[in-house]
Amino acid sequence: MTLIAVDLVTEQKDKVWGLFPTTTWPARDTSHEKALRDAVRGALVDGRTPSPHSAALISLISAVDLTHKVIVDADKKLLKQRAKQIAEGEWAGAAVRKAVSDVNAAVMAAVMVPVIVSTTSS
Question: Which of 53, 62, 63, 83 could lock onto 100 through a cystine, CB 3.0 to 4.6 A?
Fold first, then answer.
């Protein structure tokens, strides 16, 4: 069963610059996203204690350093500090940070090995 089949998203096909085909799947009901954004904003900007669900989400957002993309109209430095505080106190925080770190290390290895091989074999 797909998200389209259960009527949670719609498929929209378009073209970028009239040339490149793109497909997006916007949500039909954005109330869930709004509730999540409000909970994240409440914790990061207003200083409210986050629910475990919100804390896990904030931990993930902090691990990939995107708090300023989720909350765009607040001080980036303060958002980052508050997100880090929440992530450090959150049970999944360390696991999320390790997973993101492991992925980053794998990507760096995948990029660097061919570069090193190509420069040393010349």
Answer: 63
Collapsing DSSP to helix, strand or coil, 22 comes out as strand
pTM for the full predicted model? 0.60
Q: Is residue 17 part of a domain?
A: no
Inside any domain, residue 49: yes
CB 24 within 8 Å of CB 12: yes
Total domains present in the chain: 1
Chain centroid to Cα 59, Å, comes to 10
Look at residues 84, 45, 79 and name the one whose alpha carbon lies nearest to residue 63: 84
**What is the number of other CB atoms lying within 10 angstroms of the CB of residue 19?**
6
pLDDT in tens, 30-75: 888 889 899 999 999 998 988 888 888 888 888 888 888 888 888 8
Q: Which two tokens stand for residue 76?
A: 């980036």
